[in-house]
Amino acid sequence: MIDCFIAEDEQILRRGLTLTIDWNALGCRIIGEAENGAQALDLIQKLKPDLIITDIRMPVLDGLSLIEKTLEQYRPEFIIISGYNDFAYAKKAIRLGAADYLCKPIDEKELTAAVTEVCKKIAGKQAQALQNMPVKIIAGNKLLLAHFKEFVPQSAGRKNKYISNAIRFIQQNYGGNITMRDACKHLVISESYLTKLFKEYTGYSFIEYLTYWRMKKACELLNTEGIKIYAVAERVGYSDQRYFSVLFKKYTGLTPKQFREKQFSIE
């Protein structure tokens, strides 16, 4: 799912934004809200949402300043909302990289269209992140798992529901010995059709996404002390620890042991 954050000082409008559209249908979830810019900045730095929807005029820290300070940390997408049809604000917001600028009162169709377009852009970046695996060691010797981002395609319609359900099936059953055939039985579609759809909408095969998700979860488990490597392998669907280790190194550039040692050495 694509993580979204709403910064809006008007409680009624903030509540309305969460209820106006079906976020889940767009592959999104609201992970946080704030009533002023300073509170928003603090939460954004902790939660790292993919999409931030922010008002221009807010107490303590305005929306444009919030964007500037957030961009000093990382580069999410932004949608600006404002009660002022002010070209100067819009111009600066666009210069800062805002994806869209909506005027109050917020129209449901306009909001849906804006979020849909931004989500397509985010999904494209996430797909590119998958292509850029393995994970790299970056500044400060911290292991960044930015490439292990959850990817849900944003194309609308019935076909997308098949893909979303297939991905959900993987995410809920990756610890078992699952195959594409199992997913097809669950979705009640043919293997050839799912193969075509999966490649078309994600750019990857079913097994590539399954492996990616298992590696993502393995990284999370290896960050937990007390769990043996063989147990990590079993939890993410591999009964053969040696095979798991080979795959893990292919995806991260480190063996499970090296990954764990690196993680705990930098804490």
From TrEMBL:
GO molecular function, one term: sequence-specific DNA binding
Residue numbers bearing the 4-aspartylphosphate modification: 55
SMART domains referenced in this protein's UniProt entry, alphabetically: HTH_ARAC, REC
GO cellular component, one term: cytoplasm
Keyword Mitochondrion: no
InterPro entries referenced in this protein's UniProt entry, alphabetically: CheY-like_superfamily, Homeodomain-like_sf, HptR, HTH_AraC, HTH_AraC-typ_CS, Sig_transdc_resp-reg_receiver, Tscrpt_reg_AraC-type_HTH
Official protein name in the record: Stage 0 sporulation protein A homolog
Organism: Treponema maltophilum ATCC 51939
